[in-house]
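User: Can you help me understand a structure? I only have the sequence.
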Amino acid sequence: MEQPYYTKKILERFIHPRNLGKIKDADGIGDTQNLRCGDLMNLYIKVAKQDGREIIKDAKFETIGCGHAIAISDMICDLVKGKTFEEAQKVGFETIVKEIGPIPPVKMHCAKLAQAALKAAIDDYLKKSKK
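Assistant: Let's start by predicting it. Here is the structure, written out as tokens:
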């Protein structure tokens, strides 16, 4: 039997994203785009101190793209909340795909774009805070 193009988990996160929106006073912003497919992804992070370490307290996204791009943007936000930067940077596109379930190979670029947006948001924070 052939794998469905949109799994239940992808559809749920696409239709009812938990992390959709902008963090107005974001500590870091990652803007990425895929010129081939036209996806635009903005990832916002809010940083806090916890037990003497900086963690990603909150993460939100604004994405213009297909259902996979929106669902994956939502998933990466959940995966990095509460993590240090070092832990969050280990959340690669493979981790995202493993958590969200199988995606068609043609949609793998969505997970790679989310990984790039996270890296850009962390880099933006580190640049702003001169770390």
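Now, to help you interpret it: DSSP finds five helices and three strands in the chain. The longest helix spans residues 108-128. Let me know which part you'd like to focus on.
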